[in-house]
Amino acid sequence: MKKIFVLLFLATISFVLYAEDAPATEVLYFFYSDSCPHCHEAMPFVEELEKERPDITVKKLEVSKDEVNRAVFIKKIEKLGIKGGGVPTFVFKDKHIVGFKKGVSEEKIRAMIGEKPVKKAVQE
Hints:
By secondary structure, this protein is of the alpha+beta class. It has a single domain (2-113), classed as 3-Layer(aba) Sandwich (Glutaredoxin).
């Protein structure tokens, strides 16, 4: 029974990691913990950003209770060479921001993800 659980767990992690490597749109990862006050402070901004930027998929991943999310987090911070790996952590492409300070971090995160693409007008 234990072997089956381990195999299912590994299969789930493999699937998630494979899916993470081939996103359909650009992805902003928001790694957080339910017990982190800075993460709670960041959450309204993250939800606002989701509405502002439908061109970006925001993945909110709780890492203190969810082993699969924690595995994704560890893979990302190792790939980016982030030392310490605290939360909240924002990852966009090969850029990252660790921590959140209301009134300061919002501008940094928006700069990290760049401007919203402008739709090209159709010429007739």
